[in-house]
Design a protein that fits this description.
Elements lengths: L22 E5 L14 H10 L7 E2 L5 E8 L2 E8 L7 H11 L6 E7 L7 E5 L7 H10 L5 E6 L9 H5 L7 H20 L1 H9 L2
Parallel strand pairs: 1-4, 1-5, 5-7
Antiparallel strand pairs: 2-3, 3-4, 6-7
Helix pairs in contact: 1-5, 2-3, 5-6
Length: 207
């Protein structure tokens, strides 16, 4: 089962000095133990799952509100990024890194929670509206474009009468459904980078 608190126990590694990458992969969420197991943090969880097989560790990046880890996916240089801002300021971490590395929007993958998908479903898209998601709003604002790639992890809509902020900041239900969606989102990253978006959509959307 995916450990919701695994990321809190990870020691920081030495920050990389010379950053180079062909892709940026961002897991959206809110920092700190208070938010670790919430629905809004499934993007953080999926990024951890992507890092887990190689034992890669996120490190603070001086001068940027983010923790990062360099990865190699099928021969491609990838920078995994976890913003350390709150969700509504995510773009403050993403845009400076994209500019520093010279990475275009179509090589930026953002993993996030999605109210408009049933819990457990994962869907991929290029661009489009933010649908009220504050992390996406900030990313779009700071990048100056909507044309980045999204990996959307379904969390369903709140019950009638429950405010959306209370729902997304509520504890996500642990279990096989969550484990599967987190693993699928991590698989989606690998597929997008190694096979391209259309192939990744065909594979992931058939699950």
């Amino acid at each position: 089962m995916f450990n919701l608190f695994r990321r809190l126990r990870r020691p920081a590694a030495t920050p990389p000095v010379d950053l180079t990458a062909d892709w940026i992969v961002v897991g959206l969420g809110n920092p700190g133990a208070r938010y670790a197991a919430t629905r809004h943090n499934v993007g953080y969880m999926a990024l951890d799952d992507l890092l887990a097989p190689g034992g890669d560790l996120l490190s603070p990046l001086p001068g940027t509100p983010a923790e990062v880890a360099p990865l190699n996916i099928d021969g491609h240089s990838v920078l995994a990024v976890r913003p350390t801002t709150y969700m509504n300021l995510s773009g403050e971490a993403i845009a400076p890194l994209a500019e520093r590395l010279g990475i275009a929007a179509d090589h930026i993958i953002v993993i996030h929670d999605e109210l408009d998908l049933p819990a457990g479903k994962v869907r991929l898209k290029l661009g489009g509206n933010e649908n009220g998601h504050n992390g996406l709003k900030s990313t779009t604002e700071h990048l100056g474009t909507r044309d980045y790639l999204r990996i959307r992890i379904g969390i369903s809509r709140p019950p009638a009468g429950m405010p959306v902020p209370d729902y997304v900041l509520g504890t996500v239900d642990s279990g096989p459904e969550l484990d599967s969606s987190i693993a699928t989102a991590a698989d989606a990253v690998r597929l997008i980078i190694s096979e391209g978006m259309p192939k990744a959509q065909n594979v992931i959307h058939s699950r």
